[in-house]
């Protein structure tokens, strides 16, 4: 296991200490394991909370800040945060206007966020839960009933965050979050597995000349094991799967080519060139591209492609200023 | 070779097409292999040009934009750009106030930039060349006479870019670039090798329980092969080496924990926590931290630590607005 860590049991705690030291704009509570905007709570603002297993950085903690999340609750690596932790994050940012919990569709996350929402309601915080389930690769998985939540989580958090920042109410913020999820699809490809520190062994085995099409962000199985292929064919497989589920012809789209953690930026740009070619050749117009490692899976090599069919309102919210460690522009 | 590419010979061309498609703020010339600010040339502004082998993205092309570089000349992977290409980048951004060429200290880069500078002078462009040689690990290497240029290149490009943006003259911009280099040191550690696409084989071999202390950004040998060790000990080795060369006690520092391309962000934060502890325990004050993969080495796993002893003027220039694909804040 080649990892830059101290001890497997300390990875999340150490990383949180690092985030706290690196980002004065965040308030990190190592005991409760919460990451909160330093200016929270903001009275009258709908609070956006997300969370999930660690190992996907900068998701979610790196998306806490102006114009995006108010708080994140990071669990152990690839393990859901617990309800009390999510509740602590929620109460820390409660501005009296209710809270939207953005939950990737994994069984543990869904259960624990549901319990946290009930606990928050007991404290008179109105909660709307928004499920993200954008991954078209598989209908159910080892971690999921229904589709998995993956790359589009970034879109949901950014766009709902912009609307919440503008002063919109709870129903509107939850509504736009659901709209973004409904208009988004993703498909991931792994060139290598990853190793959960506490396990010490790769999540799966992949031959030197094999790739996994439709991989999940925890290394859970995808749709198909295939022979290694050129980037343009990887992209074709991914976009064909997305297009079959949500036709892209005629759409104006936001596209993310997302590095999975172990694939360098030069390869992500190679993939993006193929994505731009494919979409142009299939009648879609990329109006907002994004390339980088935003929703990672430890050191897994590969990429995920996420597409959102924009509307003028969604484009405007995407463009709105954001200032977080992981995403920042225009302020 | 697990890479998301089409063909080894096409990697740089494909990645440049991807950058062009993803970043309308850049003007990418695939024929001359130059990346130029869309608003160049800016009359009366000192032009900042850098370049070097590809495989270190976002360096250098991703640092082209407001407040940083005017142009970059990317060579083949780990291979110097050629003089004509550097000249093309220089003439494309020449605003009549001279050009500063920021050159990492590798033999090929030094020679080719020297020739490009002579060609530019022939076209009446005054050129100042600034050599970056911040890596304390080795005095000479397979690629170098003298110390290698590594992570501090980011500091030099950002700070000199801010001064150039403010309207300073050629001597002042070159002067601050040299000052930043003189006040900066770096030390890298590899947990895995990387594979140049055209070679198809790893740049070196590393046992499953081995790391390379003092690695270069091309996988060239470092100072010492060692047994795998906890992140805190890796950081101690790196900062002890830097501190022995440039004492850090009492300094106010800018610190970069730089992912080498294959190490995920969660591990970079683990390393940064140890960096913050070490510096605090040795009398240094971190006034500006930065964590992320900025000067990469393809998919190499590991990190590099770069430290710059700031002055109030350098801090102000570091904080100045920057808007590039790879670094962006405050505008």
List the helices and strands and how they pair.
The structure is a homodimer of 331-residue chains.
Chain A: H1 11-22, E1 26-29, E2 34-37, E3 47-54, E4 71-77, H2 83-93, E5 99-104, H3 107-122, E6 127-132, H4 152-165, H5 170-182, E7 184-190, E8 210-213, E9 224-227, H6 231-245, E10 252-259, H7 265-281, E11 285-292, E12 302-309, H8 312-319, E13 322-323, E14 328-329
Helix pairs in contact in A: 2-3, 4-5, 6-7
- Content-based structural category of chain A: alpha/beta
- Strand line-up of the largest beta sheet of chain A: 1-2-4-3-5-6
- How many helices of chain A? The count is 8
Task: Using the coordinates shown, work out and report the CATH topology of the largest domain in chain A.
Answer: Rossmann fold
Q: What is the percent of helical residues of chain A?
A: 25-40%
CATH level-4 homologous superfamily of the largest domain in chain A:
Dihydroxyacetone kinase, domain 1
**Which stretches of chain A are poorly predicted, pLDDT < 50 over at least 5 residues?**
none
**Largest interface in this structure:** A-B, 60 and 60 residues
Mean pLDDT of chain A: 96
Q: Tell me the quaternary state.
A: homodimer
Query: What percentage of amino acids of chain A are in beta strands?
Result: 15-25%
Q: Work out the radius of gyration of chain A.
A: 19 Å
Largest sheet report of chain A: 6 strands, mixed
H/E element string of chain A? HEEEEHEHEHHEEEHEHEEHEE
Shape of chain A: globular
How many structurally independent domains of chain A? 2
- End-to-end C-alpha gap of chain A: 41 Å
């Amino acid at each position: 296991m080649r990892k830059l860590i101290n001890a497997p049991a300390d990875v999340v705690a150490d990383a949180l200490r690092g985030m706290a030291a690196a980002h004065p704009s965040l308030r990190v509570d190592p005991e409760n394991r919460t990451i909160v905007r330093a200016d929270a709570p903001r009275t009258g603002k709908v609070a956006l909370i997300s969370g999930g297993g660690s190992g996907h950085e900068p998701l979610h903690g790196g998306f806490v800040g102006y114009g995006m999340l108010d708080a994140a609750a990071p669990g152990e690596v690839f393990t859901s945060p617990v309800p009390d932790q999510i509740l602590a994050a929620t109460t820390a940012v409660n501005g009296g206007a209710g809270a939207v919990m953005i939950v990737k569709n994994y069984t543990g996350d869904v259960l624990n966020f549901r319990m946290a929402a009930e606990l928050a309601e007991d404290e008179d915080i109105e909660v709307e839960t928004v499920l993200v389930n954008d991954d078209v690769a598989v209908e159910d998985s080892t971690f999921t009933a229904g589709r998995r939540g993956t790359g589009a989580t970034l879109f949901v958090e950014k766009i709902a965050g912009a609307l919440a920042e503008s002063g919109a109410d709870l129903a509107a913020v939850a509504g736009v979050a659901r709209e973004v999820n409904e208009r988004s699809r993703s498909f991931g490809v792994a060139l290598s597995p990853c190793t959960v520190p506490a396990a010490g062994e790769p999540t799966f085995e992949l031959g030197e000349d094999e790739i996994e099409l439709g991989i999940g962000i925890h290394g859970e199985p995808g749709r198909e094991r295939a022979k290694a292929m050129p980037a343009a064919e990887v992209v074709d497989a991914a976009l064909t799967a997305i297009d079959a589920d949500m036709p892209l012809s005629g759409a104006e789209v936001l596209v993310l080519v997302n590095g999975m953690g172990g694939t360098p930026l030069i390869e992500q740009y190679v993939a993006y060139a193929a994505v731009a070619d494919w979409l142009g050749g299939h009648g879609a117009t990329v109006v907002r591209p994004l390339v980088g490692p935003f929703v990672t899976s430890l050191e897994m090599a590969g990429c995920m492609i996420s597409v959102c069919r924009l509307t003028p309102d969604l484009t405007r919210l995407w463009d709105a200023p954001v200032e977080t460690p992981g995403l920042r522009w225009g302020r």
